[in-house]
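Next up, a specimen:

>
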Amino acid sequence: MGPSDRHDRLRRWQAASLLAAAPIASLSATDAGASTPPQAPPGQQRIASAALVEMLHQRVLAGQSATATLETWCAEHGLAEQARVRAVRVRGTDKPAPTEVLQALAAEPGTPLRYRRVQLVCGSRVLSEADNWYLPDHLSPAMNQVLDTTDEPFGRVVGPLGFKRQTLADQTFWPPRGEGDQGVILEVRALLRDRQQQPFSYVIESYLQQALP
């Protein structure tokens, strides 16, 4: 075998080796791409977030208690290891009741009226903030004591009244109203009525961006 023959065989062997390696290299590139999930385009992300806001909106409107609704929501979306919503009372604050609140509660001048501001928290997330004006004379002494001395959610405390929730106004916001985690995605104004259909609580709830998974 002459030098030219050996050279031709070497070139054919190198070409065959490259062809054999090509599928392996292609497969490796495919595997690497498959290991990184594709990122949804910003437009699709906005649509998905808006859909979640609307889902929460409908849940809140259908529920009788914001606390119970948020606990279920927190569990479904894995927002915390333990889906237990607790109220963190914002103390040292007072806000005069607007005219529409007094009218909705049929509160005459001199009628005792209390104000309570709380944050509903699941894990480390502040899911909502609420301004609540209520008539203490419609509650039992035990209920008033719990509300005065603890951070227990209002809906959980007054549950024995068998109250019904009447939505007065609601609005969603996407993009959120405000900045960062404190941005509001949903605002609901609601009136709570007892078994005798007597109004005893007016609440303005602001659901925050942290409620989204």
